[in-house]
Amino acid sequence: MIRRIAGILALALVAGCANASHDAVPLWNAFASSQTTPIRHVVIVIQENRSFVNLFRGFPGADAPSFGYDGRHKIPLTPVRLNDPRAIENNYSDAIASWNHGRMDGFGRENLYGANRLLPYSYVRRADIAPYWALARQYVLADRMFPTEFGPSYTAHLDLIAANTNMNSASIAQVDAPNQTPWGCDAPVGTRTFLLNAQRVESFPGPFPCFKQFPTIADTLDAAGVSWRYYAPPLTNTGGQVWSEFESVHSVRYGPDWKNVVTPETRILTDAANGSLAGVSWVVPDWKNSDHTGSGGNGGPSWVASIVNAVGESSQWNSTVVVVLWDDWGSWYDDARPPQLDFRGLGIRVPCIVISPYARIAPGAAAGYVSHTQYEYGSILKLVEQIFNLPAIGPPALGFTDTRAASLIDTLDFTQTPRPFRPIAAPLSAAHFLTEKPSLVPPDDE
């Protein structure tokens, strides 16, 4: 991870909002009076650093072109392997450069560690990610999922548990990642975070990354008696250190909820197989199975398939929805102009697949649906809130986005007969992951 604290750029806030596309029928309306559904379990599977076009270039019915723009030059996208070893920087400044005031033509301006400036204009070979395409063809592929904030994993994972990165302020937010690892309350003394103001000027130092500044959805789940677990990979052989965003939440790290942060992450496979899923589960991968640029691994698609298969073949299939998404764009090209809803973003588009026996089906099709509804990470937490009849996490005036976000509930159709599960073929089985030695490397350090 490259840190240029002294050289942080002041970046002007430029509007350029795009109109939201809400073509999906709000099937939730039929249940709004009682707010009850067959769903009792939400599993949020988080992978690393891929744009929508990078994984789903050419997917039928989706906004996924085969070319991009580098400035005014039209660039055909070229294939790369999922385990291509070349790394690309994906900090806030890289995202802003790629976005380029909404022109989506600045991806060659990212920090490429000496690689060809056209490396970001690539897509992953379909053979390498066949399980992802199989899931997208059977269930719902959302082609308008945007991170709530420009930048890398740290703030993305905050949004996925809190729908917010603001520091108890309408105009100051977390940005990028802390300047030392491990992240969170166990970071070395002197660790500090980076902050972003309403003019999109980044500053350092921010507070120590052990936050008391905002609640998370863990607070509302606890208050309602809804169980939750966060499955995280270990970072040491002796235990204690895990890669979980709840490491940065003081009330969780030093309270009774820390028991809900479960390691190793592969326990999701046995919990699902045993029919003992919590109400809400987050699952983050080992570095080798993360899809992260430069990891050298290609186990990610099989890892995700093993989770889906464990859920699908369990007694809880008919009461579960699985949401698979990638936490940030990873500096890969994407054409979709993110609407600018506030000074944080939205950020550059990522893939999202919604898997459930109630997943919507396109009219006249046997399976599969492409949703063009505009979503953000608050959309996932809003789905959780609607399923469990929970209040919003916090007020929009302080930056919480779960109120404004379109809910992923509209990817589900509870009027249809629940579909029987069909296993997803993958090169590696659950047994592989259950016996694989952990890498002890963070899935991301940005």
Task: Please give a handful of descriptors for the protein shown.
single chain; 446 residues; alpha/beta; Alkaline Phosphatase, subunit A; nine-stranded mixed beta sheet; three-stranded antiparallel beta sheet; 10 helices
Summarize the helices and strands and which ones pair or pack:
Layout: E1 41-47, H1 52-56, E2 67-70, E3 73-76, E4 78-80, H2 92-99, E5 122-124, H3 130-138, E6 140-146, H4 153-162, E7 172-175, E8 194-197, E9 202-203, H5 217-224, E10 228-231, H6 250-253, E11 261-262, H7 267-273, E12 280-283, H8 300-312, E13 320-326, E14 350-355, E15 369-371, E16 375-376, H9 377-387, H10 430-435
Parallel strand pairs: 1-12, 1-13, 4-5, 6-15, 6-16, 10-11, 10-12
Antiparallel strand pairs: 2-3, 6-14, 7-8, 8-9, 13-14
Helix pairs in contact: 3-8, 4-9, 7-8
Describe this structure in words.
- This protein has 446 residues and is of the alpha/beta class.
- It has one domain (24-435): Alkaline Phosphatase, subunit A, CATH 3.40.720.10.
- The chain is 18% helix and 15% strand.
- It is built from ten helices and 16 strands.
- It has helices at residues 52-56, 92-99, 130-138, 153-162, 217-224, 250-253, 267-273, 300-312, 377-387, 430-435; strands at residues 41-47, 67-70, 73-76, 78-80, 122-124, 140-146, 172-175, 194-197, 202-203, 228-231, 261-262, 280-283, 320-326, 350-355, 369-371, 375-376.
- Strands 1, 6, 10, 11, 12, 13, 14, 15 and 16 form a nine-stranded mixed beta sheet that branches.
- Strand 2 (67-70) and strand 3 form a beta hairpin.
- The protein is globular.
